[in-house]
User: Fold this.
Amino acid sequence: MDAAAWNRRYETNELVWTAEPNRFLVVETAALAPGTALDLGTGEGRNAVWLAQQGWRVTAVDFSDVGLAKASQMAAAADVEVSTVCADVADYTPDPGGFDLVAILYLHLPADLRHEVYGRAGAGVAPGGTLLVVGHDATNLTDGHGGPQDPEVLFSAADIAEDLVGSGLIVERADCVQRTVASADGDRVAIDALVRARRRSMQ
Assistant:
């Protein structure tokens, strides 16, 4: 989907993704000291706003100006600040070493573009900083619920770890994880890939 398609999806007054932060983001950042954070592909900004509520100084990037407007409204309602940047992740380059946390949550791209985008995102991680990637696992297509139905944009934790080769990041966790989601047919299980990586602190 392009920016225009996402704008149409976000035009409703209701939140498409709810206001609750991603459960894995909450767990994986619990032990981190707040600093600067980049939420790449923020959508309506639920994760960016939650991070700001935890004390992070957040930059939220997305190519949907409608989604970013909702993110700004959500931030204002929560009395926090989130800096929004309207940009296509295919072209956006974070400041090298500019962020203590780079979060990429459910940003699904064709493999070649993913490798490029995630590589640039990894370069944006500051010394001592963390990169967190969560997305629909490739096995979700046949064994899980929801998510993209195009196998070309799905990935495994091993795929993301390979994208980070040469980035200088140390992969601390690369797992296949499950979460329960509500559906019209009752609770179902979705399967995600999760990667957490860290850049060594400067000595």
About this structure: The first helix runs from residue 3 to 10. The longest strand covers residues 169-183. The two ends are 44 Å apart (CA to CA). The chain has a mean pLDDT of 91.
